[in-house]
Design brief:
Layout (H helix, E strand, L loop, with lengths): L8 H16 L4 H8 L3 H8 L7 H11 L3 H12 L6 E4 L6 H12 L2 E6 L10 H10 L4 H14 L10 E7 H5 L5 H14 L5 E6 L13 E5 L6 E6 L2 E5 L2 H17 L3 H16 L2
Parallel strand pairs: 2-3, 3-4
Antiparallel strand pairs: 1-7, 2-5, 5-6, 6-7
Helix pairs in contact: 1-6, 2-3, 4-5, 7-8, 10-12
Length: about 280
């Protein structure tokens, strides 16, 4: 059973958004706390998701930060679900609330395990490949530009001084599905090979020859943190699901382990990707 005071995905997401709003206003935690008559540690615990944030406290903070309208309603709704374990978000277009939360978790993670049966994972995509995905999914141009820029921005975590460990498991179909044309695929696959040379990146390929496997259910990402509980992220076209119950996370971790064991070794995976890149080059 998880501890009752363990931070939830909703609480961590809300706290992170409030922290960003405060910093965008150029305010320190001490200044905001003083204005509200709070101890500085109280706001710090709220922003890190260690303490629940009642709607009335969120409302007070939003007044200071000048947040009104639909954004205010959304953040207040999050505070009302602050103790809920697990988080389902639906969305329309552009850079969505759940994507901001996912990007924040990705930044804080020390280990990221990604299974992708159809596409190259976002952290390892080249811009033209990402644009081709947006076009194929009928994403409006304005929203697509925002999403492409955000996806490129996410990749900066792999180049920082202490990057997270990234284990990418991809199906052969993701390597053979041509998005953006053969030239784009060649660049994309060679980028995968280059990324796999990083000491913090492991690439595993699941070839067609393995037949049926547990990953046919769909893609998932497991994010591990230094102190906070691990989170599983499941993405759909019009919604996103975050799972945080230990039993749920363990189930996906076992799936990732099974997929990794069925996949080619990292060295053979790199050779396999390079060979498919050469095949695309001849098309």
């Amino acid at each position: 059973m998880p501890k009752q005071n363990a931070p939830t995905v909703v609480g961590r997401g809300l706290g992170g958004e409030l922290r960003q709003l405060r910093k965008a206003k150029g305010l320190t935690g001490a200044a905001v706390s003083a204005q509200l008559g709070w101890q500085a540690s109280r706001l710090s615990r709220m922003e890190t998701g260690q303490q629940g944030i009642p709607p009335e406290d969120v409302a007070s903070l939003l007044v200071i930060y000048g947040v009104i309208g639909d954004e205010r309603k959304r953040l207040l709704a999050m505070s009302e679900r602050g103790k809920d374990r697990g988080w389902w978000e639906t969305y329309g277009s552009g850079l969505t609330p759940w994507s901001r939360t996912f990007i924040r978790f990705e930044t804080e993670a020390i280990r990221i395990t990604s299974w992708q049966p159809m596409l190259v994972p976002g952290l390892l995509q080249v811009p033209d490949y990402t644009k081709a995905i947006m076009r194929a999914c009928d994403v409006p141009d304005a929203d697509a530009q925002i999403r492409v820029a955000a996806r490129l921005g996410r990749q900066a975590i792999l180049s920082r001084d202490e990057p997270p460990e990234l284990h990418v498991i991809v199906d052969e179909s993701a390597l053979r599905r041509v998005l953006g044309g053969p030239r784009v695929m060649v660049r994309q696959l060679r980028h995968l090979v280059e990324a796999a040379e990083r000491p913090n990146v492991t690439l595993s390929v699941l070839p067609f020859g393995v037949g049926g496997h547990i990953g046919v259910d769909g893609p998932f990402v497991i994010l591990d943190f230094v102190r906070d509980p691990a989170v599983v992220h499941l993405e759909h076209r019009m919604s996103s699901l975050f799972l945080e119950e230990p039993s749920q996370v363990d189930a996906f971790r076992r799936s990732a382990d099974k997929l990794a064991k069925m996949a080619l070794s990292p060295a053979r995976s790199v050779e396999f990707v390079a060979r498919i890149a050469t095949e695309h080059e001849r098309e």
